[in-house]
């Protein structure tokens, strides 16, 4: 991996100017970008509360977890804040395949001067710890318990990290930062939506200094996010269409909360639906392909009714069944 250009932030930037939030706060940032700084997504819309929480993580060395339903923009939010601060950033997906060795490091055979030798190769945790890097543990609640205990050690601010095999203690770089995203709050899959998540150890949850929540946003804000992603719809009729789509999504979320549906439409799905509308030029067909086909067959009539309520037109009956040749 390439080295970071700077070892510490060398300027302060105004939160008002960079993130458009009404505050006089200034936060440290880097002047130069290296390969690990995520690309700026100019269409990204920052949620003020979550942004301030993430900024506290960067400027005050707080351990920040962003929690919320799927597809609400958690992972991208942290990356986009880092992108604006030119802060190098590494995202690790804590799915079931990540092992302790991936995080800590392992002995590997390398060829040196024509000879095969065994050499310790640092995992991502010791690598990041020694650099001004923001390490993001994505899908934190999906991590296996043995993996989570590796992380526990670095959750404390001065958390030193011991490489047992190496007999070496690593002190965290003063500008190393740690973030996580998760769908649950560590209490397991209570809603039934997040199969594969784990109940987290509470001694570990306790070590996160800030837990910010990013759930669904007010309708106008969600419409603005979808329009930012699909600017081709930014004209009168297009905006109305997106508003109706967001209205359908809201009904699925209410239906889910009331127990009528076992699934719900995330902002990510609304964006996909809007993109598919551009491809198929038919909102109903795009709806079927982006969301309806993911729903349980018995729940499709309910979802179709939501569509009818928001769009004033019926969905094709044959779409309610998967068994039929379509
Ligand atoms: N505020 C926003 N502005 C612009 N785009 C957004 C915003 N929020 C979400 N998106 C878009 O929605 C999609 C989903 O975002 P992201 O992957 O960050 O969600 P997530 O909350 O991490 O989801 P999951 O829980 O499934 O991991 C991305 O394509 C992202 O660009
Ligand atoms: Mg994510």
From TrEMBL:
Gene3D superfamilies: P-loop containing nucleotide triphosphate hydrolases (3.40.50.300). Transmembrane segments: none annotated. It comes from the Bacteria. Keywords: ATP-binding, Nucleotide-binding. SMART domains: AAA. SUPFAM superfamilies: P-loop containing nucleoside triphosphate hydrolases (SSF52540). InterPro entries: AAA+_ATPase, ATPase_dyneun-rel_AAA, CobS_N_dom, P-loop_NTPase. It holds the Pfam family CobS_N. Residues 60-206 form the AAA+ ATPase domain. PANTHER family: MIDASIN, MIDASIN-RELATED. This is AAA family ATPase. It comes from Thauera mechernichensis.
